[in-house]
Amino acid sequence: MNPMQKDFAAHLRSAFDAALERSNPREVVRRVVEELDSPSAVLAVGKAAAPMLAGLENAGLRLPGFGVTRYGHGQRLDHYELLEAGHPLPDQASLTAAERALELARGLGREDHLLVLISGGGSASWCAPWGLELAEMQELNRALLASGAGIAEINAVRKHLSRIKGGRLAQATRARVTALLVSDVPGDDVNTIASGPTAPDPTTFADALAVLERYRIPAPAARAHLERGAAGALLETPKPGDPLFTRVHNEVLLANYDLLEAAANYWREAGWEVLVLSDRFEGEARELARFHAALVQSVRARRIPAAPPMVLVSGGEATVTVRGAGRGGRNQAFLAWLAHYLESEGVWALAADSDGIDGNSDAAGAFLTPETLARAAALGLDLRAYLERDDSHGFFAELGDLLVTGPTHNNLNDLRMIVIE
To answer: Which CATH number fits the domain that encloses residue 175?
Structure first.
């Protein structure tokens, strides 16, 4: 980047950092648990497990229990044990953590009150396979993540191959359950966050089987199990209206909308007009980029829906149907396609995953500048070739435009900011 680009990129980075700081789960958990009715044990799972447990400590709660998070996302805690496990693919540590969680839940009585702190990433951190072995579960997860399936579709499969997901943790205990959640899914459905271990599951074995059919995923062991369930030979996940949920309370504390508003407020405080588009974008990163490019062009040419200068902010969770062998994630892919659609028009933008890890890369996301394509051409980089092999990470790495943060200890989905001068 030239000096002017570095200066403007710093504003985008500052907005990203400010948004994360203003939506830190630690303080929110501290305030909420002070109002709770005497919890007697705690379980925490997901990428925000560390600050959520820290919030308990700050509130003075020292309960039996433990947490589990992704490798590298742990923090030192004064009281609580925090395990680390695989993500996005579960591993043996994920299985061990899930078994411990189920054992704790089963040991509680009707007079007890179980507090469960849930954040995105919990699907991999708690893995209790049902109907297949761990290695088969890992291979299935790998195929699902590369298929382009949406998170709700992926979780419909996960729930019906698990003894802890899809409300089965709540089903395993006689205690009252309060679940406090940090949402990383569009729409903030409690049955989707971390595959809904404490929430009723509206999906069925047949729905899960249909996902494998839709995306042509072989997975013979999983298919055999799901077919047995669809035929009525296995117990379904607990559904909405099940009496067990009269003793369960699920509450979303933070969501993608909070992250977007925090970012928007950063720009407003700096004197910019801001349009928050939506916190519910889903679908292919390529198509999401096409929409945002059209909006940029409309703002510039017609001042619709507003006149520049302004900042567009959006969230949600895109997907990438992987066909090549490159590296990257949905945010880097989004920006690469945005550059492709805007061509020489260019724009300042940042897109990043709030957990600090975008796809199979070590970057949270990347920056786009008005000179991205010109600098790429000067270096002999063919953007289209990078797109064809799904290597958005390689493209932005060559330009020096990656956003690398390391683990943020939060997980509020994606943040995209486009500055239209």
So the answer is: 3.40.50.10180
Domain that holds residue 301: 3-18+257-420
Digit-coded pLDDT (tens) for 327-377: 889 999 999 999 999 998 989 999 999 999 998 899 999 999 999 999 999
How many structural domains compose the chain? 2
- Taking CA atoms, 23 is separated from 75, 202, 273, 286, in Å, by 18, 30, 21, 28
Per the structure block, which two tokens stand in for 287? 């198509």
Query: Domain check: are 298 and 375 in the same one?
Result: yes
Is the bond into 305 cis (omega within 30 degrees of 0)? Answer: yes
Shared domain for 50 and 62, answered yes or no, is yes
Domain shared by 360 and 290, yes or no = yes
pLDDT tens, 233-266? 999 999 999 999 999 999 999 999 999 999 999 9
In this prediction the pTM is 0.91
303 and 361, same domain (yes or no) = yes
Mark residue 139 as left, alpha or beta (left: phi above 0; alpha: psi -120 to 50; beta: remaining). alpha
- Give the 3-state secondary structure of the chain: CCHHHHHHHHHHHHHHHHHHHHCCHHHHHHHHHCCCCCCCEEEEECCCHHHHHHHHHHCCCCCCEEEEEECCCCCCCCCCEEEEECCCCCCHHHHHHHHHHHHHHHCCCCCCEEEEEEECCHHHHCCCECCCCHHHHHHHHHHHHHHCCCHHHHHHHHHCCECCCCCHHHHHCCCEEEEEEECCCCCCCCCCHHHCCCCCCCCCHHHHHHHHHHCCCCCHHHHHHHHHHHCCCCCCCCCCCCHHHHHEEEEEEECHHHHHHHHHHHHHHCCCEEEECCCCCEEEHHHHHHHHHHHHHHHHHHCCCCCCCEEEEECCEEECCCCCCCCCCHHHHHHHHHHHHHHHHCCEEEEEECCCCCCCCCCCEEEECCCHHHHHHHCCCCHHHHHHCCCHHHHHHHHCCEECCCCCCCCCCEEEEEEEC
Q: Are residues 228 and 310 in the same domain?
A: no
